[in-house]
Design goal:
Blueprint lengths: L4 E2 H7 L6 H10 L2 E3 L2 E2 L5 E2 L4 E6 L2 E7 L9 H5 L2 E3 L24 H14 L2
Antiparallel strand pairs: 1-4, 2-3, 2-5, 5-6, 6-7
Helix pairs in contact: 1-2
């Protein structure tokens, strides 16, 4: 299992990025770090390597367990790394009142109630 695999190919193979070119672009932009240091796309990965990937403003921390170069199914891909990403806290989204379809425009009283509800949610 001493196969040499580029980090961009590995990130694509384990389905972190949808395309290999997207993985390469992320490496160039500095969104991928190997053992705490920014890497180029041609850097090779080995088992035990710690990879930090920044996607959509969220950092994912992955540990390589098996280097693979070909894209595989999702279950096989998940067995090639250990995800150490901390769980994100859930943000409570207040429910917006929904009017029945065909109920017409809100009356002045309905608008005042909606305004009071919105003000109490803005705390």
């Amino acid at each position: 299992m001493s196969e040499q695999v580029r980090i961009d190919a590995w990130l694509w193979a384990v389905r972190v990025y949808k395309t290999r070119s997207a993985a390469t672009t992320a490496c160039r932009a500095g969104h991928v770090k190997l053992d705490g240091r920014p890497v180029k796309a041609a850097q090779t990965v080995a088992p035990g390597a710690q990879i930090r990937v920044r996607q959509n403003g969220v950092d994912r921390f992955l540990e390589v367990t098996r280097p693979i170069a070909k894209r595989v199914g999702a279950q096989v891909a998940q067995s090639c790394y250990i995800d150490h990403t901390p769980e994100r806290p859930r943000v409570a989204v207040p429910q917006v009142p929904v009017r029945d379809r065909g109920a017409g425009r809100p009356t002045k009283k309905d608008r005042r109630e909606l305004d009071r509800l919105r003000q109490s949610l803005d705390l």
